[in-house]
Amino acid sequence: MAIEAFRLTGLASCAGCAAKMGLGTLAEVLANVPGFHAGAHPELLVGLDGADDAAVYEVAPGVAIVQTLDFFPPVVDDPYTYGAIAAANAMSDVYAMGGQVRLALNIAAWPEDLDVALFTEVLRGGAAKVAEAGGVIAGGHTIFDPEPKYGLSVTGVVDPAKIMRKAGALPGDVLLLTKRIGTGLLMTAAKEQRPAHEAGYEAAVTSMLMLNRAASEAAVAHGAHAMTDITGYSLLGHAREMADRSGVRLVIEAARVPALPDAQRFAAEGVSTGGGGRNRAQLGDRVTLPAGIDESLATLLFDPQTSGPLLIAVAEADAERLRSTIEAETGGCWRIGTVEAGPAALEVR
Predict the structure, then answer these.
(1) Considering the entire predicted model, what is its pTM?
(2) 17 catalytic residue (yes or no)
(3) Domain architecture of the chain: domains with CATH
(4) Closest to 17 in 3D by CA, of 298, 201, 269, 232
(5) Which position among 12, 14, 17, 64 bears the catalytic label?
Protein backbone atom coordinates (compact mmCIF):
# COMPACT_ATOMS: atom_id res chain seq x y z
CA MET A 1 0.00 0.00 0.00
CA ALA A 2 1.18 3.52 0.77
CA ILE A 3 4.06 2.14 2.81
CA GLU A 4 5.84 1.19 -0.41
CA ALA A 5 5.36 4.72 -1.70
CA PHE A 6 7.11 6.01 1.40
CA ARG A 7 9.99 3.63 0.71
CA LEU A 8 10.27 4.81 -2.87
CA THR A 9 10.72 8.42 -1.83
CA GLY A 10 14.18 7.50 -0.56
CA LEU A 11 13.70 9.90 2.36
CA ALA A 12 14.57 7.46 5.12
CA SER A 13 17.84 8.61 6.60
CA CYS A 14 20.16 6.81 9.01
CA ALA A 15 20.19 7.42 12.75
CA GLY A 16 23.54 9.16 12.51
CA CYS A 17 22.34 11.37 9.66
CA ALA A 18 19.50 12.89 11.68
CA ALA A 19 22.15 15.34 12.71
CA LYS A 20 21.93 16.26 16.37
CA MET A 21 23.91 19.40 17.16
CA GLY A 22 27.34 18.40 18.44
CA LEU A 23 28.31 18.50 22.11
CA GLY A 24 30.76 21.36 21.70
CA THR A 25 28.47 23.48 19.51
CA LEU A 26 25.51 23.03 21.83
CA ALA A 27 27.55 23.98 24.89
CA GLU A 28 28.72 27.15 23.14
CA VAL A 29 25.15 28.12 22.22
CA LEU A 30 23.65 27.47 25.67
CA ALA A 31 26.43 29.35 27.45
CA ASN A 32 24.97 32.58 26.07
CA VAL A 33 21.28 31.87 26.72
CA PRO A 34 19.89 33.69 29.78
CA GLY A 35 17.32 32.24 32.14
CA PHE A 36 16.06 28.65 32.20
CA HIS A 37 18.17 27.86 35.24
CA ALA A 38 16.87 26.20 38.38
CA GLY A 39 18.54 28.70 40.72
CA ALA A 40 16.42 31.58 39.40
CA HIS A 41 13.11 29.68 39.63
CA PRO A 42 12.46 27.73 42.86
CA GLU A 43 9.87 25.46 41.23
CA LEU A 44 12.24 24.57 38.37
CA LEU A 45 13.98 21.57 39.90
CA VAL A 46 16.00 20.66 36.80
CA GLY A 47 16.85 23.20 34.08
CA LEU A 48 19.60 23.97 31.61
CA ASP A 49 22.23 24.34 34.29
CA GLY A 50 21.84 20.66 35.14
CA ALA A 51 22.50 19.45 31.57
CA ASP A 52 20.05 16.63 32.25
CA ASP A 53 17.76 14.71 29.92
CA ALA A 54 14.57 16.71 30.61
CA ALA A 55 13.27 19.68 32.55
CA VAL A 56 11.49 19.06 35.86
CA TYR A 57 9.06 21.57 37.40
CA GLU A 58 7.32 21.16 40.77
CA VAL A 59 3.60 21.91 40.51
CA ALA A 60 2.51 20.83 44.01
CA PRO A 61 4.08 19.22 47.08
CA GLY A 62 5.17 15.74 46.05
CA VAL A 63 4.30 16.27 42.37
CA ALA A 64 6.52 17.48 39.54
CA ILE A 65 6.14 17.42 35.78
CA VAL A 66 8.89 16.21 33.46
CA GLN A 67 9.00 18.02 30.11
CA THR A 68 10.96 17.12 26.99
CA LEU A 69 10.74 17.10 23.20
CA ASP A 70 12.49 15.39 20.32
CA PHE A 71 11.98 14.96 16.58
CA PHE A 72 13.97 13.85 13.54
CA PRO A 73 13.69 12.78 9.87
CA PRO A 74 12.77 9.19 8.96
CA VAL A 75 15.18 6.53 10.18
CA VAL A 76 13.27 3.63 8.56
CA ASP A 77 11.15 3.36 5.42
CA ASP A 78 7.93 2.11 7.00
CA PRO A 79 5.95 5.19 8.11
CA TYR A 80 4.11 3.49 11.00
CA THR A 81 7.37 2.12 12.39
CA TYR A 82 9.06 5.49 11.93
CA GLY A 83 6.33 7.17 13.98
CA ALA A 84 6.58 4.57 16.73
CA ILE A 85 10.40 4.83 16.92
CA ALA A 86 10.28 8.63 17.03
CA ALA A 87 7.74 8.48 19.85
CA ALA A 88 9.74 5.92 21.83
CA ASN A 89 12.84 8.06 21.42
CA ALA A 90 11.08 11.23 22.62
CA MET A 91 9.58 9.51 25.67
CA SER A 92 12.93 8.03 26.68
CA ASP A 93 14.03 11.28 28.33
CA VAL A 94 11.08 11.08 30.72
CA TYR A 95 12.15 7.57 31.69
CA ALA A 96 15.76 8.72 32.09
CA MET A 97 14.51 11.13 34.78
CA GLY A 98 12.59 8.36 36.56
CA GLY A 99 9.19 9.67 35.44
CA GLN A 100 6.05 8.28 33.84
CA VAL A 101 4.57 9.52 30.55
CA ARG A 102 1.15 11.16 30.75
CA LEU A 103 0.62 13.53 27.80
CA ALA A 104 2.21 14.17 24.42
CA LEU A 105 1.83 16.59 21.50
CA ASN A 106 2.88 15.81 17.93
CA ILE A 107 5.63 17.85 16.26
CA ALA A 108 5.62 17.27 12.51
CA ALA A 109 6.85 18.61 9.18
CA TRP A 110 5.55 17.14 5.91
CA PRO A 111 6.29 17.76 2.22
CA GLU A 112 3.36 19.17 0.28
CA ASP A 113 3.90 16.67 -2.54
CA LEU A 114 4.09 13.52 -0.37
CA ASP A 115 0.99 11.37 0.12
CA VAL A 116 -0.82 12.41 3.31
CA ALA A 117 -1.89 8.78 3.80
CA LEU A 118 1.73 8.13 4.75
CA PHE A 119 1.54 10.96 7.29
CA THR A 120 -1.49 9.29 8.82
CA GLU A 121 0.56 6.13 9.28
CA VAL A 122 3.35 8.08 10.99
CA LEU A 123 0.87 9.60 13.43
CA ARG A 124 -0.79 6.25 14.05
CA GLY A 125 2.55 4.70 14.92
CA GLY A 126 3.36 7.50 17.34
CA ALA A 127 -0.06 7.34 18.99
CA ALA A 128 0.17 3.57 19.46
CA LYS A 129 3.57 3.84 21.15
CA VAL A 130 2.37 6.60 23.49
CA ALA A 131 -0.66 4.47 24.38
CA GLU A 132 1.71 1.58 25.16
CA ALA A 133 3.48 3.94 27.56
CA GLY A 134 0.21 4.70 29.33
CA GLY A 135 -0.08 8.21 27.91
CA VAL A 136 -2.21 10.02 25.35
CA ILE A 137 -1.54 12.32 22.40
CA ALA A 138 -3.82 15.35 22.67
CA GLY A 139 -2.84 17.49 19.67
CA GLY A 140 0.24 19.02 18.12
CA HIS A 141 1.57 21.25 15.36
CA THR A 142 2.40 20.50 11.71
CA ILE A 143 4.12 22.58 9.03
CA PHE A 144 5.02 21.99 5.38
CA ASP A 145 8.71 21.24 4.83
CA PRO A 146 10.70 19.58 2.03
CA GLU A 147 11.82 16.78 4.39
CA PRO A 148 9.50 14.79 6.70
CA LYS A 149 10.19 15.21 10.39
CA TYR A 150 8.27 13.83 13.34
CA GLY A 151 8.51 13.66 17.10
CA LEU A 152 6.79 14.59 20.32
CA SER A 153 6.65 17.10 23.10
CA VAL A 154 6.17 14.89 26.13
CA THR A 155 4.90 15.63 29.62
CA GLY A 156 5.50 13.14 32.40
CA VAL A 157 5.13 13.10 36.17
CA VAL A 158 7.65 12.27 38.88
CA ASP A 159 7.95 12.40 42.64
CA PRO A 160 10.45 15.23 43.33
CA ALA A 161 12.14 13.01 45.90
CA LYS A 162 12.76 10.29 43.28
CA ILE A 163 14.09 12.28 40.32
CA MET A 164 16.88 10.44 38.52
CA ARG A 165 19.75 12.60 37.26
CA LYS A 166 23.08 12.24 35.54
CA ALA A 167 24.61 13.52 38.76
CA GLY A 168 24.64 11.09 41.67
CA ALA A 169 26.96 8.27 40.56
CA LEU A 170 29.13 7.25 43.52
CA PRO A 171 32.52 5.55 43.82
CA GLY A 172 31.93 1.82 44.06
CA ASP A 173 28.82 1.90 41.86
CA VAL A 174 28.29 -0.54 39.01
CA LEU A 175 27.33 0.67 35.51
CA LEU A 176 24.47 -1.15 33.79
CA LEU A 177 23.37 -0.81 30.16
CA THR A 178 19.81 -1.85 29.31
CA LYS A 179 19.98 -2.39 25.51
CA ARG A 180 22.55 -3.35 22.93
CA ILE A 181 24.06 -0.50 20.90
CA GLY A 182 24.82 0.02 17.22
CA THR A 183 21.62 1.46 15.74
CA GLY A 184 23.41 4.24 13.87
CA LEU A 185 25.79 1.82 12.15
CA LEU A 186 23.02 -0.63 11.29
CA MET A 187 20.65 1.98 9.88
CA THR A 188 23.49 3.32 7.76
CA ALA A 189 24.38 -0.18 6.52
CA ALA A 190 20.75 -0.69 5.51
CA LYS A 191 20.64 2.69 3.79
CA GLU A 192 23.76 1.75 1.83
CA GLN A 193 22.26 -1.67 1.03
CA ARG A 194 25.28 -3.48 2.43
CA PRO A 195 25.21 -7.24 1.79
CA ALA A 196 23.59 -9.31 4.57
CA HIS A 197 22.36 -6.26 6.48
CA GLU A 198 18.83 -7.57 7.10
CA ALA A 199 19.34 -9.39 10.43
CA GLY A 200 21.09 -6.43 12.03
CA TYR A 201 18.51 -4.03 10.64
CA GLU A 202 15.61 -6.00 12.13
CA ALA A 203 17.38 -6.25 15.49
CA ALA A 204 17.98 -2.49 15.48
CA VAL A 205 14.33 -1.74 14.70
CA THR A 206 13.16 -4.07 17.48
CA SER A 207 15.53 -2.35 19.92
CA MET A 208 14.45 1.16 18.91
CA LEU A 209 10.79 0.23 19.37
CA MET A 210 11.36 -1.00 22.94
CA LEU A 211 10.35 1.51 25.60
CA ASN A 212 12.72 2.24 28.48
CA ARG A 213 9.75 2.25 30.85
CA ALA A 214 10.33 -1.11 32.58
CA ALA A 215 14.06 -0.50 33.03
CA SER A 216 13.42 2.96 34.45
CA GLU A 217 10.81 1.72 36.91
CA ALA A 218 13.18 -1.01 38.09
CA ALA A 219 16.06 1.45 38.52
CA VAL A 220 13.92 3.75 40.68
CA ALA A 221 12.58 0.83 42.72
CA HIS A 222 16.08 -0.51 43.38
CA GLY A 223 17.48 2.85 44.47
CA ALA A 224 19.80 3.58 41.54
CA HIS A 225 22.02 6.61 42.11
CA ALA A 226 22.17 8.09 38.57
CA MET A 227 20.70 7.46 35.14
CA THR A 228 20.72 8.80 31.59
CA ASP A 229 19.62 7.53 28.21
CA ILE A 230 22.06 6.90 25.38
CA THR A 231 21.06 8.74 22.22
CA GLY A 232 22.84 10.95 19.68
CA TYR A 233 26.00 11.62 21.68
CA SER A 234 26.83 7.90 21.89
CA LEU A 235 27.59 5.69 24.87
CA LEU A 236 30.86 7.51 25.51
CA GLY A 237 29.38 11.00 25.13
CA HIS A 238 26.56 10.41 27.57
CA ALA A 239 28.81 8.49 29.97
CA ARG A 240 31.20 11.45 30.02
CA GLU A 241 28.25 13.70 30.91
CA MET A 242 27.46 11.43 33.86
CA ALA A 243 31.08 11.52 34.97
CA ASP A 244 31.18 15.33 34.75
CA ARG A 245 27.88 15.86 36.56
CA SER A 246 28.75 13.35 39.30
CA GLY A 247 32.40 14.40 39.73
CA VAL A 248 33.63 10.82 39.45
CA ARG A 249 35.67 8.57 37.18
CA LEU A 250 33.60 6.22 35.04
CA VAL A 251 35.37 3.10 33.80
CA ILE A 252 33.80 1.21 30.88
CA GLU A 253 35.02 -2.27 30.07
CA ALA A 254 34.85 -2.33 26.28
CA ALA A 255 34.60 -6.12 26.02
CA ARG A 256 31.43 -6.07 28.12
CA VAL A 257 29.54 -3.52 25.99
CA PRO A 258 26.76 -5.39 24.16
CA ALA A 259 26.45 -4.77 20.42
CA LEU A 260 23.50 -5.38 18.15
CA PRO A 261 24.07 -8.17 15.61
CA ASP A 262 26.51 -7.20 12.84
CA ALA A 263 27.03 -3.64 14.11
CA GLN A 264 30.74 -4.09 14.79
CA ARG A 265 31.16 -6.11 11.59
CA PHE A 266 29.83 -3.24 9.53
CA ALA A 267 32.09 -0.84 11.39
CA ALA A 268 35.03 -3.07 10.45
CA GLU A 269 33.86 -2.90 6.82
CA GLY A 270 34.03 0.89 6.89
CA VAL A 271 30.44 1.85 7.70
CA SER A 272 30.36 5.10 9.68
CA THR A 273 28.00 7.96 10.49
CA GLY A 274 28.45 11.71 10.51
CA GLY A 275 27.22 11.81 14.10
CA GLY A 276 29.77 9.23 15.19
CA GLY A 277 32.58 11.27 13.64
CA ARG A 278 31.39 14.42 15.39
CA ASN A 279 31.15 12.60 18.71
CA ARG A 280 34.71 11.35 18.42
CA ALA A 281 36.10 14.72 17.35
CA GLN A 282 34.33 16.72 20.03
CA LEU A 283 35.01 14.32 22.90
CA GLY A 284 38.67 14.25 21.94
CA ASP A 285 40.94 13.76 24.94
CA ARG A 286 37.96 13.85 27.32
CA VAL A 287 37.76 10.07 26.84
CA THR A 288 40.73 7.78 27.50
CA LEU A 289 40.80 4.84 25.06
CA PRO A 290 43.17 1.90 25.55
CA ALA A 291 46.20 1.71 23.30
CA GLY A 292 45.56 -0.54 20.33
CA ILE A 293 41.77 -0.67 20.72
CA ASP A 294 40.11 -2.30 17.73
CA GLU A 295 38.95 0.51 15.47
CA SER A 296 35.59 -1.13 14.84
CA LEU A 297 34.95 -1.30 18.58
CA ALA A 298 35.88 2.36 18.99
CA THR A 299 33.47 3.25 16.18
CA LEU A 300 30.72 1.35 18.00
CA LEU A 301 31.37 3.18 21.26
CA PHE A 302 31.05 6.58 19.52
CA ASP A 303 28.01 5.50 17.47
CA PRO A 304 24.93 7.76 17.86
CA GLN A 305 21.86 5.87 19.03
CA THR A 306 18.17 6.37 18.34
CA SER A 307 15.86 5.28 21.18
CA GLY A 308 18.91 3.79 22.84
CA PRO A 309 19.45 2.17 26.24
CA LEU A 310 19.57 3.58 29.74
CA LEU A 311 22.94 3.85 31.47
CA ILE A 312 22.44 3.28 35.19
CA ALA A 313 24.80 3.74 38.14
CA VAL A 314 23.77 1.60 41.10
CA ALA A 315 25.42 0.37 44.30
CA GLU A 316 27.35 -2.89 43.97
CA ALA A 317 25.07 -4.51 46.57
CA ASP A 318 21.99 -3.83 44.45
CA ALA A 319 23.48 -4.23 40.98
CA GLU A 320 22.84 -7.91 40.25
CA ARG A 321 19.31 -7.78 41.60
CA LEU A 322 18.54 -4.77 39.41
CA ARG A 323 20.27 -6.28 36.40
CA SER A 324 18.34 -9.54 36.64
CA THR A 325 15.05 -7.69 37.19
CA ILE A 326 15.52 -5.62 34.03
CA GLU A 327 16.66 -8.66 32.05
CA ALA A 328 13.52 -10.56 33.09
CA GLU A 329 11.34 -7.65 31.94
CA THR A 330 13.07 -6.67 28.70
CA GLY A 331 15.30 -9.58 27.68
CA GLY A 332 18.65 -7.98 28.43
CA CYS A 333 20.75 -5.88 30.77
CA TRP A 334 24.53 -5.82 30.96
CA ARG A 335 27.13 -4.85 33.54
CA ILE A 336 29.63 -2.75 31.57
CA GLY A 337 31.78 -0.96 34.10
CA THR A 338 32.28 0.70 37.45
CA VAL A 339 32.54 4.09 39.09
CA GLU A 340 35.72 5.23 40.84
CA ALA A 341 36.59 8.27 42.91
CA GLY A 342 37.15 11.50 40.93
CA PRO A 343 38.25 13.81 39.46
CA ALA A 344 35.68 13.61 36.68
CA ALA A 345 36.94 11.39 33.86
CA LEU A 346 35.90 8.62 31.50
CA GLU A 347 38.20 5.69 30.81
CA VAL A 348 37.66 2.76 28.48
CA ARG A 349 39.58 -0.39 29.38
Answers:
(1) 0.91
(2) yes
(3) 2-162 (3.30.1330.10), 173-348 (3.90.650.10)
(4) 232
(5) 17
